[in-house]
TrEMBL record:
The name this protein goes by in its record: ATPase, V0 complex, subunit E1/e2
Alphabetically ordered keywords of this record: Hydrogen ion transport, Ion transport, Membrane, Transmembrane, Transmembrane helix, Transport
Domain of life, per lineage: Eukaryota
Native source species: Suillus plorans
Keyword Ribonucleoprotein found: no
């Protein structure tokens, strides 16, 4: 159960950053593009971190 706590904590941090990115992007002709880029970047970084973290906790090949 201890391996789930960092994943959920980092998820909450990333969701907070996504919300800040959505709310604080200045208005302009490229506002939607900038918002989308920020959200996709943060989501991709989180997914890559989570997959790497979980792979280290539960390796497919264990050392005997």
């Amino acid at each position: 159960m201890a391996s789930v706590i960092p994943v959920i904590f980092i998820l909450a941090v990333v969701l907070g950053l996504i919300a800040c990115g959505y709310l604080f992007v200045p208005k302009g002709p490229h506002q939607t593009t900038i918002r989308t880029a920020i959200m996709l970047t943060l989501a991709s970084c989180y997914l890559m971190w989570m997959v790497t973290y979980m792979a280290q906790l539960h390796p497919l090949i264990s050392k005997s």
